[in-house]
Specification:
Layout: E1 9-13, E2 18-24, H1 25-28, H2 32-49, E3 55-57, E4 60-68, E5 78-83, H3 88-93, H4 108-116, H5 129-142, E6 150-155, H6 176-184, H7 186-207, E7 213-216, H8 219-225, H9 235-239, E8 244-247, E9 250-257, H10 264-286
Parallel strand pairs: 5-6, 5-7, 7-9
Antiparallel strand pairs: 1-2, 2-4, 3-4, 4-6, 8-9
Helix pairs in contact: 4-10, 6-7
Length: 287
């Protein structure tokens, strides 16, 4: 008997740093016109990204995404970094922020942002890209690094896209989350966000404890995860280190808004300030 999809959006975890997602297009696009327009945009999207792992099969959109949550535990407080959406080439190579630029250089997230925040031993500049990925993936999963925090990584929007602005047509740029919004259309995208939010909230409940925190690097992630009493996203507020609050439905879990990774300087500085805030809070709580 064929498996019946119970939800518009479903996902299942796979080993290491990936998970498989399925979107029921018959539930996402109720009007035939909307479905046809999506498939036209999707054909162009696939042509440029050349991601053969994204496919439509029997009304189901199937793709791989990324998530790295260590199952090992130690005494360090857990911090969850919630990014925007995955880059296609990072999923292909099995590691967040696998590289940057045409020459496969170390990504600014590992090279600039984390070291500026006091997490310096996850940068492996000088190694080949595949070597960096293996070494960093193993370090994160085995908790084999010197940071005072236990680090988890996830994305807010699971659908992948190209990292650079290399998909231009009459619909505009189709990289990053803005590109995903254009691909699905605003109505369908907003519906998907409801399901993505539930997925990320599950990760927070399972991984983050009251001595840790959640750090968002993207506006939708902040807006959807914040409590009602916290202010909406503003990049100026994020750069000024003023986006802080608690996770919706979990007042014991602290939430922090970090500038996007493209702003590596402000992102690193803001991350450091809020990580230090967690450390000071934990020291005071223990005294």
């Amino acid at each position: 008997m064929a498996k019946v999809q119970k939800s518009l959006f479903e996902y299942c975890r796979t080993p290491a740093v990936s998970f498989r997602c399925t979107i029921d297009l018959t539930r996402l696009f109720l009007a035939p016109k909307d479905r046809k327009e999506f498939e036209s945009r999707f054909e162009k999207f696939q042509h440029v990204t050349n991601n053969k792992k994204i496919k439509i099969f029997k009304d189901k959109l199937i793709y791989d995404s990324e998530q790295l949550i260590p199952t090992k535990k130690d005494r360090r407080p857990p911090v969850l970094f919630v990014l925007g959406n995955p880059a296609t080439h990072s999923i292909e190579r099995g590691m967040f922020f696998t590289s940057e630029g045409k020459n496969g250089k170390e990504h600014r997230f590992w090279k600039n942002i984390l070291p500026k925040a006091g997490i310096g031993d996850l940068c492996f500049e000088g190694l080949l890209e595949d070597e960096r990925n293996i070494k960093r993936r193993n370090a994160l999963l085995e908790l084999d690094y010197q940071s005072p925090y236990r680090i988890g990584l996830c994305v807010f929007i699971s659908f992948p896209s190209n990292a650079s602005r290399d998909f231009k047509n009459e619909s505009g740029d189709c990289s990053g989350i803005q590109g995903i919004k254009r691909l699905f259309g605003s109505k369908a995208f907003n519906e998907l966000v409801k399901h993505e939010r539930r997925r990320v909230m599950t990760v927070i409940r399972e991984f983050v404890t009251r001595d840790g925190g959640v750090f968002t690097f993207q506006s939708d992630a902040w807006n959807e995860l914040r409590s009602e009493k916290d202010s909406g996203y503003s990049i100026s507020e994020a750069k000024a280190k003023k986006l802080k609050g608690t996770v919706a439905e979990m007042p014991e879990i602290r939430l922090f808004g970090i500038p996007p990774t493209r702003l590596s300087g402000p992102a690193g500085e803001t991350l450091k300030k809020f990580l230090d805030k967690i450390s000071r809070h934990n020291v005071m709580a223990a005294s």
